[in-house]
């Protein structure tokens, strides 16, 4: 009985020692784990939130520009119409967009009626020529013998009068033939100038009246930009001035001021400035365009365009101090040329601003600056 009790006590003693060892290991692990990260973080210090590049504002010479909006229109348009009345269109040779040359046949009318009139006029002319030759011969004989007394004065006068009448009839017949020849020539509708067809209303088989428009032609394929400027701005614009025009398609082209309207539009109170544009198939009449009048150069403080951050409708930059801390500054921007933006106020000349990565910064962020 005593041996059994002694053995049982030994087992409980070993279990207690084992349990104490397990509790000691658990306690040691619990104490060491939370302490180590805090010690490492304290030793390392605050970490930068972002890596950025910086640049200081620069003095640059920027162009002075006057911005304006307007429409691209044809320099001049020619209305090509019918000069004949009541004839049928037999053929139409061009369509909208076709480039034509001066004198090119655009359309033709049926020629049967005018050809018949021309033949009749020629026959009348031949008859008038014969009558004139006969009357002239009689008049010449009368003039040759009028002093001989063979013919009375009244007879001589009659022959001379018949000659004048025959001459007048001959001239009238020539005039009628010329008119019919012109009418016959007008059966061909010709281009009045080089250019491009901008509109067409001619239809094969249609019977048109005199004066009816068949085509519209942009003369010499030239376009112009009609810019609208205010009365206070027009004094800065002069003839011959260069203009950078950007069409609705994105095409950028250089024009030159041709004329300035002498009066303002009664509705908009703006004044039109007419700018000649070089020939380019991408320019379309009736489209919108914007442009800049070049007025010279001036010095400006600029920063890279990537450093400008737009938030809540305002422009900001982030100034990086010697401790690499970002400070948000609201700036007023001006002209933009290429990758540089003019800063009118909000940052000093010796203050570096964040460039790459500026859009991700916030006030008081710690950054790492790299080249």
Quickly list its features:
alpha+beta; 6-stranded antiparallel barrel; 4-stranded antiparallel β-sheet; elongated
Largest sheet: 6 strands, antiparallel, barrel
Q: Estimate what percentage of residues fall within beta strands.
A: 35-45%
So what's the overall shape? elongated
- Distance linking N and C termini: 88 Å
**Oligomeric state of the chains?**
single chain
- What is the count of helical runs? 3
Spans of at least 5 consecutive residues with low confidence: 32-43
Tell how many strands the DSSP assignment holds.
22
**Helix and strand element order:** HEEEEEEEHHEEEEEEEEEEEEEEE
Averaged pLDDT, please? 86
Strand order of the largest sheet: 3-12-15-14-13-16
Describe the structure.
- The protein has 371 residues and is α+β, with helices and mostly antiparallel strands.
- The protein contains three helices and 22 strands.
- The chain has helices at residues 2-44, 112-145, 153-185; strands at 50-52, 54-55, 58-74, 77-81, 87-92, 99-100, 105-109, 188-190, 195-200, 207-208, 213-219, 223-229, 242-247, 252-260, 271-277, 288-304, 309-311, 314-320, 326-337, 340-345, 353-354, 367-369.
- It has a six-stranded antiparallel β-barrel with strand order 3-12-15-14-13-16.
- A hairpin with a 4-residue loop joins strand 13 and strand 14.
- Helix 2 (112-145) runs antiparallel to helix 3.
- The longest helix has 43 residues, at 2-44.
- The two termini are 88 Å apart.
- Residues 32-43 have low confidence and may be disordered.
């Amino acid at each position: 009985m005593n041996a059994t009790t002694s053995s049982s006590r030994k087992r409980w003693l070993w279990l207690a020692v084992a349990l104490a060892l397990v509790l000691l290991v658990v306690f040691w692990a619990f104490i060491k784990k939370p302490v180590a990260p805090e010690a490492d973080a304290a030793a390392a210090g605050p970490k930068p939130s972002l890596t950025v590049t910086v640049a200081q504002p620069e003095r640059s010479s920027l162009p002075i520009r006057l911005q304006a909006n307007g429409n691209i229109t044809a320099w001049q348009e020619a209305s090509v119409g019918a000069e004949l009345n009541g004839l049928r269109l037999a053929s139409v040779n061009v369509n909208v967009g076709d480039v034509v040359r001066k004198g090119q046949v655009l359309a033709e009318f049926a020629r049967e009626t005018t050809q018949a009139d021309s033949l009749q006029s020629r026959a009348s002319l031949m008859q008038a020529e014969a009558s004139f030759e006969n009357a002239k011969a009689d008049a010449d004989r009368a003039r040759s013998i009028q002093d001989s007394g063979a013919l009375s004065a009244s007879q001589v006068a009659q022959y001379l009068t018949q000659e004048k009448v025959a001459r007048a009839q001959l001239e009238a017949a020539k005039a009628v033939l010329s008119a019919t020849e012109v009418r016959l020539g007008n059966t061909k509708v010709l281009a009045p100038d080089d250019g491009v067809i901008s509109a067409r209303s001619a239809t094969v088989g249609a019977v048109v009246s005199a004066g009816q428009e068949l085509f519209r032609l942009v003369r010499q394929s030239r376009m112009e930009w009609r810019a609208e400027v205010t009365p206070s701005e027009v004094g800065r614009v002069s003839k011959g001035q260069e203009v950078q025009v950007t069409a609705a398609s994105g095409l950028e082209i250089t024009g030159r001021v041709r004329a300035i309207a002498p009066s303002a539009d009664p509705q908009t109170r703006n004044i039109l400035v007419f700018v000649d544009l070089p020939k380019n198939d991408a320019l379309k009449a009736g489209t919108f365009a914007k442009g800049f009048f070049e007025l010279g150069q001036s010095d400006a403080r600029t920063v890279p365009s990537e450093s400008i951050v737009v938030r809540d409708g305002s422009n900001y930059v982030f100034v990086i101090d010697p401790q690499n801390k970002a400070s948000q500054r609201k700036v007023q921007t001006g002209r933009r040329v290429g990758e540089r933006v003019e800063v009118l106020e909000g940052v000093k000349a010796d203050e570096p601003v964040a460039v790459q990565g500026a859009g991700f910064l916030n006030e008081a962020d710690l950054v790492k600056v790299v080249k």
